[in-house]
Amino acid sequence: MECSECRGRYGRHLLLSKLDPRAMAREERVARGLGVGRAIKGVPGAVLGPLALAAAFVLLLSRLPSGGDGFAARGRRPMMQTTTLGPEAPSPTKGAVYVHRVVAGGSPIPVTREIHRDDELVFAYENQGQKQNLMIFGVDELGHVYWYFPAWTDARDNPFSIGIDSTPGTHELREAIAHPIVGRKLEIHALFLDSPLSVREVETMIAEHRLDLPTGFEQVQTLQVVP
Fold first, then answer.
1. Are residues 95 and 131 in contact, defined by beta-carbon separation less than 8 angstroms?
2. Mean pLDDT of successive 10-residue segments in the chain (227 residues)?
3. Residue 76 CA to chain centroid, in angstroms?
4. Domain that holds residue 198
5. Number of Cβ atoms within 10 Å of the Cβ of 18
6. Mind telling me which residue stretches traverse the membrane in this protein (predicted)?
């Protein structure tokens, strides 16, 4: 989804960190809030384990809607319907994504039920299933799609899923991201994949009321969005 306001926010954060030598780097701020002294590639599982439990993720398997008009311009579509994992569904122990919010430059706080409209979100993941790629995006009840990983700020681009670490433990994604969320409910979707996918491929599948992940799995968390 092209988002000039998102680009502006990214730019302001980068500019402030360059102008103020005392300002803590974004990576250091995020890593410190997640329990480490400075940003590193992976955070030991013992560090984020309690936070992961506090996050109380509800794992859901997406079921595409049977009606609706699909995507409109700039990645808009009806909100996904979801169902709980069944006996044939991928096991939650194969991987998980944990959401934290950052308030006014402070330390990350585990997300349980709600976020504020202007919160920056940071993510960490566990990859017991040793998948190779990850995509994280949000969908509000109005059908707006908000891409977190990969970032998608220019409609002319077609970014691909990000590569992820398959070693044991919890690994943080260093970037803190804020989107101007319009709706009052947000579904956070995490796709664990064996092969790369592009954002356009994912949106095309959803527009056609299908989401083919034959060797991957999806995790969904529903959050309330408050002012």
1. yes
2. 46 38 50 42 36 34 34 34 32 84 85 93 96 96 93 94 96 94 96 95 81 84 96
3. 17
4. 4-226
5. 9
6. 42-61
